[in-house]
Structure formats: structure tokens, C-alpha cells
Amino acid sequence: MNREANRDSFSGYHPFISFGYFAVVIAFSMLFMHPVMQAIALFSAIAYSIMLKRNKAVKFNVLYMLPLLLAMAALNPLFNHAGVTILFYLKNGNPITLESILYGLASACMFVTVIVWFSCYNAVMTSDKFIYLFGRILPALSLTFSMALRLVPRYMNQIRIISNAQRSIGRDVTQGSLLARVRNGLTILSIMTTWALENAIETADSMKARGYGLPGRTSFSLYRFDRRDKTVLASMLVLIAAILYGWAIGENTMRYFPSMKAAEMKADSLAVYVAYFGLCMLPVITNAVEELKWKAIESRT
């Protein structure tokens, strides 16, 4: 568990809880296109990412996610001209409709929300947690998937190390003429490729020597499904059941084409929104409760 996730009490729950939570919220974020549901999911994902990564999350969301959301929302009406509410026409004669604009905004919101949820997933679900859950069921796939998740950050870090080493001898991509920079870049890429291949072979040999994937192999683990995990799991199941009930009766659905239509706001709708907010904000609420407990303990000492 990394240093940033150590401040997150939700990361201390059983891996089954963490994986199940992210699987559900990511699936719901892709499934529900209702504006209220999307706003809840996006707000919760950003709030949790900031709680996990602090300033890095703020920078990531403002510099990358916000422009991505606006760009995707703006591009959709240029290619999608469906909808009955025509606002104006382009010079080529294609109409810009209100439905296409709002659907583009909803699609962009869904896409950004899923990316932010995955950034939280990578901070909480470490490779040892994933292998603990799926190592016995799918040993090869779980190892490959856990390696793939840390592929980009690990390789970026190694590239920085190689670049710094090359810069010390005057062979960085920022030094020399254009031809020299290209040559230096190819050298760094070659070194990086060699390191990646050697690292893959060493990992495979190491796991094979440890008997990974063999029938009957046991492994040591500190994870225990205790009473706290059972309480959170029960809360999740209740909230998920309420959300699925709302989906079954059409309370959290939205139609964009040919015209927009949403379910009438009722008491059931509000209950579904509250349940969805509780589910998405579960890690934030958990951290807040733990913080209050710690402050209560400190006040008594």
C-alpha cells in the first residue's frame, strides 16, 4: 500500500470489499446516463481522488479531466445531429440540436467519471490485493493484469531514471543538435526496451521458482474478513439493492433521442438518488467517521 493510500481508511478494508466497490461504481457510472446520477458519480469520484492524492488529484482533474470533458462535449454535436430541438445550422447545413449537446455532455461526464474512478482504483487496489483475490482462480491472468496496471507508472519512472543518467553524460533528448537529440532519444528507448524485457524475464523466473500457479500452492496473507468488513458489505448490498430497484422501475433512466425524457421526480426517485450518493461517497464517509473516532480518542487522552 502506497504512502498516499495509507491516509485512507477505506484502503484498509478487505480486498473483496475494495474490488467489489470499484466494480459496482464503475459499472453504474457507465450504465446510468441520468444527469443527477452522473453528477453524483462525478462529484464522488473527484472527492475521493482528492482525498487519496491531495494536490496531485486537483492538478490531474483540472489540467486533464476538465479539458477532456469540455472537448468531448463540444465535439459530439459536430458529428451527431440527431434530436428534434434544432438550435441552429452549421455552414454545411448540418443542424446542431439541444439533444446532441446534452448527450455529448452526458457521454463526456461518464467517460471522465470512469477515468477518475480508475485512478482511485489504482491507488487502493494494489497488485498484491488483486493477486490475493484472483491468484488461485486465474493465476496467469491475475499476474498479467496486476503487472499491466502498474506498467505505465513504473515505466515512466524508469524512463526518468534513464534520462537523468544520459543527461549526466550529455546524451539527453534536450541536448545537442536535432539529429543528436533523435539519436539520444532512440538510445534511451533502446535501453528502456532492454530493461523491460529483462525485467519481464526476471519476474517470470521469480514467480516460477516460487511455484506460482501450481495446484495446492498456499500463500501467506494478512487479509482477514472481520466484523468491520461485514458491516460495510451489508451497507453496500442494501444501497445496491435500492439502486437496482430504482433502475427496474425506471427512476434513474434518461432518454436523449429523439427527444429528451426522464422519469417524473417522486419520493422513490429521491430515495434512489440518496442511495446512489451513499454508495458513491462510501469511502469518503468511511474516512470521515474514522477521523471523528480518532479525534474522540485523542480528546480523551
Write the layout of secondary structure elements.
Layout: H1 15-31, H2 35-53, H3 55-79, E1 86-89, E2 95-97, H4 98-124, H5 127-134, H6 139-149, H7 151-167, H8 178-209, H9 227-248, E3 254-255, E4 261-262, H10 267-280, H11 282-300
Helix pairs in contact: 1-4, 2-3, 2-4, 2-10, 3-4, 5-6, 7-8, 9-10
Descriptive overview:
With 301 residues, the chain is mainly α. It has eleven helices and four strands, in the order H-H-H-E-E-H-H-H-H-H-H-E-E-H-H. The protein has helices at residues 15-31, 35-53, 55-79, 98-124, 127-134, 139-149, 151-167, 178-209, 227-248, 267-280, 282-300, and strands at residues 86-89, 95-97, 254-255, 261-262. A two-stranded antiparallel sheet has the order 1-2. Strands 3-4 form a two-stranded antiparallel ribbon. The longest helix has 32 residues, at 178-209. The protein starts with 14 loop residues before the first helix and ends with a helix. Residues 1-6 have low confidence and may be disordered.
| Beta fraction | under 5%
Q: What integer value in Å does the Rg equal?
A: 24 Å
Q: Going across the major beta sheet, what is the strand order?
A: 1-2
Mean pLDDT: 86
Compressed to H and E, one letter per element, the order equals HHHEEHHHHHHEEHH
Count, helices: 11
Bin the helical content.
over 70%
SSE class: mainly alpha
Largest sheet: 2 strands, antiparallel
* Quaternary structure classification: single chain
Query: Which shape, going by the Cα principal axes?
Result: globular
Strand elements, count: 4
How far is the first residue's CA from the last residue's CA?
Answer: 29 Å
Poorly predicted ranges (pLDDT <50, ≥5 residues)?
1-6
